[in-house]
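Data availability (excerpt). The following record was deposited with the supplementary files.
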Amino acid sequence: MHGASRRDLRRLELPDRVVQLWTVRLLVSEEALARLYPLLTKDEKSRAKGFSFLHLQQSFVLTRGVLRMLLGSYADMAPHAVPLAYGPCGKPTIAIPNHIDFNLSHSGTLAVFAFTNGLEIGIDLEQIRPFSDIQDLASRFFCADEVIELQNVPPPDRERAFFLCWTRKEAYLKAIGDGLATPLDGFAVALKPDDPARLLHVGYDPKAAEAWTLHNLELSPGYAGALAYRGAPRPVHVFPLLDVDHLLTALTGFQHGASE
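Predicted structure:
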């Protein structure tokens, strides 16, 4: 995994069999909201207004607007015109046969966007935060092997181990597109902070797990992240962390307009 230097983002290229990751700090500014809101479809604007709290509305507008701008740059089309479709469990896809596969996640003030070609991927990001009942939460959602493994992690590392486990499991679920249709305790991942990220078994079948690749993502201090996909490991290019305003500046000059 390695970084990529900042460059002109108006026409992004996606090399074959490479995963590109963009991490964006979702700091709210009136300028960013004003530029991104018109890029949303009527349905997306309706979804944004459906959130009860203003910060959730703003987060949705920023995240969906940035996604459209990045997809537009990859697909060489206006961001508002990028046709998004949704799987049975709500996973977004691009509804044109251009071989762009993507996934996104956001937590706290960060969002991460993953792009590759010819491969279903899943990504998850979580801000690490204290819980007084971590072991109880693990017992409710994790499989028995993971619960025992978490108990064996030294207490100072247990919160991080919990979120490493959570993000790896969520990334796998998002990659298969099943959402909550597949129970979290139906498969197991490695969770110790010093161990490599990997899927240990699916339905207690280690062979099924061997078909998958997991990447641990260290995108920003205080966050845990994971990337999952079926197949052999691919190079992962991580672009520098950007503010929304900086990303919009980098994309200045790319043709985009408002949807009706």
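Summary of structural features: Residues 54-75 form the longest helix (22 residues).
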